[in-house]
């Protein structure tokens, strides 16, 4: 990655070893390939059948060494369905699916194809189709959990001329979403980060989306917007064993390039925790505000799976907004990685329920166990359970009410 803060697929803006010829650049390169086999189970209360999805992700690619300060990365992707008990190919056209949808469509495509140029000191330019992950991926990410990742077509410039600081500029004109759908876009990124401690940084950013249709049913016809924000995040060592964990972030989302005037909302996150050796525990609250129930804060370019629970029921923020109060605990023990979250989900603005005004969406518990057999082979089990408990009643708005849902995943990942 570029750094602990900004990631453009494991490449830094530092000087790199130069190959003596095009042939040497190719043979001195490295594979960027992997196979990911997954079983996903979904039990959704409002569907008569359960989903049992067996899928295989195949990424095959090569990244050359640098020649004349230039390198090339090319990677193909194939998503194969090993069964059909989960995906309705006529979904949304003429009938409602009897199965919960597992959003991993079959595709064969170019996943990444870009050129890196490092001829400018302390600077990297990347042009082409690329994966982008910024900060915790709350605003910009690759949706890496899904078998089909999100990729962007455009230009990224990263500069590290100043000590402990990074500056990123980006412009993108197309993207392929995790659904496999292509969209034209006009998306610009301004991002600057400064490490004030070895493990803590302050970041300011601007994200500008000139795209009326973002693939989300937000309640407005033109979703073009801009996000301007400030983030403080990291850890502070107390002694060799203990450390403080902290996060504070605020962003304002407003209309941009003809976007709806209802887009006038804010984002806020506050978190505090403790780490002890390989363990950590923290408490956070994330707020995505509502504008009088007309529109709520959205992050359509994000990796949304880690937020508001792993069942992915709130990838579009309800118009009443979201207040997510959650606890997290985790550890890395030898080859094991353990992780768990508990979420209490509520609306930022009250809405009507059968018994009067309320703001409760429900709660979710998530847990995962990963085992690293070798540096290239990992097995992982994940479980997520969302419970509404019939809080809202049958008369509730379908966009607000979410059915009780249980999901589990078993994944084998091999990188080569």
**Global structural class:** mainly beta
Report the radius of gyration as a whole number of Å: 22 Å
Task: Give the distance, in angstroms, between the N- and C-terminal Cα atoms.
Answer: 18 Å
* Biggest sheet layout: 18 strands, antiparallel, barrel
Task: Kindly report the oligomeric state of this protein.
Answer: single chain
Q: What's the total number of strands?
A: 21
Mass-distribution shape: globular
pLDDT average, as an integer? 90
Fraction of residues in β-strands: over 45%
Topology order in helix (H) and strand (E) letters: EHEEEEEEEEEEEEEEEEEEEE
Helix-strand blueprint:
Blueprint: E1 6-7, H1 22-27, E2 30-31, E3 34-44, E4 51-63, E5 70-81, E6 107-117, E7 123-130, E8 133-134, E9 151-159, E10 165-176, E11 182-197, E12 200-209, E13 225-237, E14 242-255, E15 264-276, E16 279-288, E17 322-333, E18 336-353, E19 356-374, E20 377-387, E21 405-415
Antiparallel strand pairs: 1-8, 2-4, 3-4, 3-21, 4-5, 5-6, 6-7, 7-9, 9-10, 10-11, 11-12, 12-13, 13-14, 14-15, 15-16, 16-17, 17-18, 18-19, 19-20, 20-21
Structural commentary:
With 416 residues, the protein is an all-beta fold. Helices cover 1% and strands 55% of the residues. It has an 18-stranded antiparallel beta barrel. A two-stranded antiparallel sheet has the order 1-8. The longest helix is centred in the first third of the chain and has 6 residues, at 22-27. The protein is globular, with a radius of gyration of 22 Å. Mean pLDDT is 90; it is low at 1-6 and 90-94.
